[in-house]
Amino acid sequence: MEQLTLYYNGWIIGLSVIIAIVAAYIALNLASKVSHSRGKSKIIWLCLSSFVMGSGVWSMHFVGMLAFHLQMDVHYDIVLTLLSAVAAIVASFIAFAFVVKPKPKLWENVIAGLMMGLGISVMHYTGMQAMRMDAMIVYSMQYVWLSIVIALVASYGALFLFYRFRNQPDFSLWKLSSAIIMGFAISGMHYTGMAATHFHHMPGSMETTTFSFSASQVLLITAVSLVSLSILAISWAAVFMERHLLERMAYSDPLTALPNRYGLQRYFEKAFYEKMQGAVLFLDLDRFKSINDTLGHDMGDELLIEVARRLRECMQAEQLPGDNQVFRLGGDEFLIAASDIQPNHAISLAERILQSIKQPYHLSGNQVFVTGGSIGIALAPQHGYDRMSLMRAADTAMYVSKNAGKNRYSIFNEEMNIRQLRRMSLENDLRQAMDANQLFIVYQPKWDSQHDRLVGMEALLRWRHPELGLVSPGEFIPIAEETGLIIPITYWMIGEVCQQNLNWQQELHVSVPVSVNMSARMFENPLFAGRVEHIVRQSGLAAKYLELEITESIAMNSMEGTVEQLKHIQSLGMRVSLDDFGTGYSSLGQLDEMPVDIIKMDQIFVRKSDQPSKQAIVSTIIAIARNLELELVAEGVETAEQETFLQSRGCYLMQGYYYGKPMTVEQMNEWLKEKVLHMPLAK
């Protein structure tokens, strides 16, 4: 048999290598998006990258086949030609499926390289088997094995580099390096395989069911052109998809699929304009943080998704005119914008929303209740027509709703704006108040009316503003709690109280416990009790001379965590009192489980003790304290009649202006010298 001589076109060889590298780069770039996708998007990116990789291998092979010429006609079997392409695509899919995992193991990387290398090899030798001609193919096995080894090693190296640097930007030298190595794996395997191939002339061996040389050549060129166009089309489609997804991510909230702040800005640019009627409703869910903390963030996310759905339904049910949209601004904050509506429509929508969101939620088999939401309404053009003005006005009105008792709506007015500006000014000044020594502590005595002696004091925080004078605690303490400033202020206050109490013991020989009010924010930190212990020990004061006052809302919220911290505080020798008893949220069924030593009856019952209904409640509270063996202190005692009434019912420990108003350290020093030094103190 005569061995045929092969002739190669160097330009076409170069083109085949370029096709392999370009296809590999596009495929690897597409595959890098798989690890950042979920669900259907992940499958789509994986299929596209596999198709581009497999088609690139196939295209490179048949462009390479066009690069050489035999001295006879060559035909191609269509079925085997298509099967060779399928083999390359399937192998690419399996390889990418392993390598795009978040953290593939070594053996998974090895399998990925093995599948890719075998896919390239199978594609090549299946394509060779598709050739029909008057010649027999004889292989040099050492070159065959060498071609397979080249495909395996280079494929593993390319995929290993791809895994290491897949999170690089869309274009990076490392990705390009991976593509070049993969391109050389494909073309290196092909031309090494061709070097292993020898053609021996065998007259009359060609089958009659194949195409002529020119027809086969036209078919190959057409097929390769179509595949190349497909690769380019997929590449452009991927760019379009990515831009579309990026735009969606930029303007939409990933959790609820509602437009976000950026979507809101785009909405205002087209939907609101000067002197246009419209409304903006700012919604903040009440007590969402406690739900998040007690039930977990996953349950909180489910709740937000359900709230978003209900808000959409409310918008649809109102059948409002104009362009209307619901937005999620972050956390538990939502905004509803409606153009071309009247104020009565906005009020009706707010009422429907409040009614809807307080209905029970069924989340992961649990029934969850939300107390409602606080809504602020801003109207256009009365309160502005640009986004910032309307959002600021609606936000201000929302805080008014929240401070007024929650689960209600408020329409913005100028008085709210004045209050909000003052609040912002106070917040800024409060951040500097402690360092500027503007905060100080006053002390109010607690009196045992039965034995006519001092039994303790309550420390109260005050703020002397350099311009405004004394700022009411009812005004600045809520600001401190909301901003978190109450935490460092409280720790400072505990330290000051301990030091001052120690001074009274050493200088005036007055040894009584002093109580400090605790904010709910303090118990959010599991290290709170340990920090208090450290402050007390550092001061040198015996722990029994410090009391911590908590409100009923603190006692009932996050009860388990609160109980553990209070028990630790009691174990140190400090006592715990329950302030404002009878007006908060406490459950009598849990009162005996709370680690408290003292109940402080709220002053509203004392002030109205001339009313029979209040007298009955006072008697009940006294009986509860006595039966639970808790100490009872009546707050707000201002007259002798109130003192006499409380004594007649069996309550003797009292606090109020009748015994002494809150006093500065200097005033308390004088009061102690005049009234207490010649009287017995509580033991």
TrEMBL record:
Spans through the membrane: 6-31, 43-66, 78-99, 106-123, 143-164, 176-199, 219-241
PANTHER family according to UniProt: BIOFILM ARCHITECTURE MAINTENANCE PROTEIN MBAA, DIGUANYLATE CYCLASE DGCP
Keyword terms, alphabetized: Membrane, Transmembrane, Transmembrane helix
Ranges of residues in domain EAL: 423-676
Metal-binding in keyword set: no
SMART domains: EAL, GGDEF
Keyword Glycoprotein: no
NCBIfam families: GGDEF
SUPFAM superfamilies reported in the protein's UniProt record: EAL domain-like, Nucleotide cyclase
Domain GGDEF: 276-414
One Pfam assignment: GGDEF
Signal peptide: none
InterPro entries tied to this protein: Biofilm_reg_signaling, EAL_dom, EAL_sf, GGDEF_dom, MHYT_dom, Nucleotide_cyclase, Rev_trsase/Diguanyl_cyclase
Protein's name in the database: EAL domain-containing protein
The MHYT domain, residue ranges: 8-200
PROSITE patterns listed in its UniProt record: EAL (PS50883), GGDEF (PS50887), MHYT (PS50924)
